[in-house]
Specification:
six-stranded mixed beta sheet; two-stranded antiparallel sheet; tt1808, chain A; 12 strands; alpha+beta
Length: 184
């Protein structure tokens, strides 16, 4: 007895893509606007992410949070991102396969040549639509940092930057610190 074929229209394509990307052998596989995208991480990229993580470490611990590159789901859309860095409450991160942007305190994207435009435009729009309260873009190609805050459906209401690398960026509460971007 053979199985009945499944009609294309009967398949939950969003769920299928998100399931498939979790089982690739590539740690940085993402679903961006319905396409599986493999993002190569370079040492230059990792250097910038590590500098940011290092400056946030003490405050992240004080807030009872954790930071890392865990998966973010965008329910109702064909998007599944792995940000360069996100800060999330430890209670939400424990045992979580993926969180949603509104469950983060901060999302950081460090651009790569292969996906800079995706980080600058597509991800910024989606992070705002899904309520990420703070989004920091470290644009390595343009050598600038921009902080986005006050998300809504059409984007972020407040944009601080772009500032050239080397200009300190004030991260508002709950962080309340000045981020040194020298050496990015």
């Amino acid at each position: 007895m053979s199985a009945e074929p499944i009609a294309y229209a009967d398949v939950n394509h969003e769920a299928a893509l998100k399931y498939a990307v979790q089982f690739t052998d590539h740690r940085w596989a993402q679903v961006i606007e319905g396409r599986i995208v493999l993002v190569p991480r370079t040492w230059d990229h990792e250097k910038v992410a590590a500098k940011i993580r290092g400056q946030l470490r003490a405050r992240v611990d004080e807030l009872g949070c954790t930071s890392g590159s865990g998966s973010l789901d965008f329910p109702g859309s064909a998007n599944w991102y792995v940000p360069s860095l996100a800060v999330v409450p430890e209670r939400l991160a424990a045992g979580a396969g993926a969180l949603t942007p509104d469950q983060t305190l901060l999302i950081v994207e460090v651009t790569c040549e292969s996906n800079g435009d995706i980080d600058r435009v597509v991800k910024r729009k989606r992070y705002a639509q899904y309520g990420a309260p703070l989004h920091l873009l470290a644009d390595r190609q343009n050598r600038t940092c921009t902080l986005f805050s006050e998300p809504h459906d059409l984007g972020y209401a407040v944009v601080d930057g772009p500032h050239p690398f080397g200009t300190p960026i004030r991260l508002p509460e709950p962080f309340g610190l000045l981020l040194d971007t020298e050496g990015f």
